[in-house]
Amino acid sequence: MTFFILFACVGCLVLLITWGKINPFLAFLGVSILSGVVLKMPLSRISQSVTTGIGNTLGSLVIVIVLGAMLGKLVAESGAAQRIADTMQRLFGTRHLVWAMAFTGFLVGIPLYYNVGFVLLMPIIFSVAYRYKLPLVYIGLPMLASLSVMHGFLPPHPSPMALVMQFHADMATTFSYGIIIAIPAIIIAGPLFARSLKRIASSDPTVSLCATTDDDDLPGVVNSFVSSLLPVITIATATVLEKIYSPNDSAQNIFAFFADPNIAMALTIVISTYTLGIRSGKKISQIMAVYADAVKDISMILLIIGSAGILKQIFVDSGVSTVLATGLKSWPLPPLLLAWLVAAGLRIALGSATIAGLTAAGILSPLALQVGVDPNLMVLSIGAGSLFCSHVNDTAFWLFKEYFGLTITDTLRSWTVMESIVSVVGLLGVLCLNYLM
């Protein structure tokens, strides 16, 4: 009976979002409360679970996600991302343009959210394709594959960051594993797969493109790279130094402080406000306006993440998670493969990678605790599954189709297959790491 109620609740969530077109935050909230009632939780306990679920989830995430959005917006508005892209084109040369595009997406995708990176980099994709008379999809897909992998696999992007917190994983370790898995996924789904797409023709873009900034007004190369990657540099350096100075408690505490994602992001914002903002001639009021817009851009993402935490808390407080974990434990599937399958199924049904990943985490987090699976690999397995088979119920599918001027069939041949390759290669990478570690 417990399994039936669980699947009915998840099915109701899927229908509300896909068929009913209900806002995901409202859908999660409504289904969570309904689940508590059906599972015969005391009404006062349901209210408490709602507060605890959204509070615990957002309490550990909101600073990193908000500051990450601010950094991404500043990187975009200052022209740092454009400078990185231009530098990559010069370094790789015309013969290896697809590799330059993939590497640019890789670097830019670390600080930028997918939608921001997509819109920002589209003018570069179009200009390169037209300048060298190359097929648009062939040039653009490697860069978008990189952006997608960064968005689905690596913290501090919203979904991976939420998964890290839910599974009590280590962010630095998850990021390191994610980079190892991301590289082959990008290579296979990007430059290699793009070779088969040279004959796909694009019509004129139906969406207006944002204007590029004059070269003289862009920040310097070193400034652009360092400012964009400063959170990664700070956390990685502090983590290594923390391990080196582990016998020294005072030094270890200092390095542990700077290795904390909240502190690393806050430090980055302070430094980047000067290096990409004030130093470029922007007023503080202009920079603060950029930050305010960044928070508006991710406000709904925060609400969706918080509401997913409510559903998880209802499952935990009602005892469903324990029953589910016990049942799933008996399935003849490795936990990491099971996690990928659950996330992939939800992705196909719901469309949103973020919602699919968070819903899968709410279902599977008790199982991870019971079977003792590596939480870092669990995060990556769900992240990989959440990218599988993007199709017509995913906004990114239509964004790609309209920008590139493709038919539905060609979008399925290119975008959908690319996302599926990324997902499957990610799963294989997770299983290989699990075997080797």
Automatic annotation (TrEMBL):
GO molecular function list? gluconate transmembrane transporter activity
Topology in the lipid bilayer: Multi-pass membrane protein
- Primary localization: membrane
Tell me the domain of life.
Bacteria
**Does Membrane show up as a keyword for this record?**
yes
Pfam families recorded for this chain?
GntP_permease
Where is it found, in Gene Ontology cellular component terms?
A: plasma membrane
Which compartment or compartments is the protein found in?
Answer: Cell membrane
TM annotation in the entry: 57-76, 97-130, 136-154, 175-194, 254-277, 298-316, 336-365, 377-400, 412-436
Q: Which InterPro entries match?
A: Glcn_transporter (IPR003474)
* Keywords (A to Z) from UniProt: Cell membrane, Membrane, Transmembrane, Transmembrane helix, Transport
Give the PANTHER family listed for this entry.
Answer: GNT FAMILY GLUCONATE TRANSPORTER, HIGH-AFFINITY GLUCONATE TRANSPORTER
UniProt lists the family membership as follows: Belongs to the GntP permease family.
What is this protein's record name?
Answer: Gluconate:H+ symporter
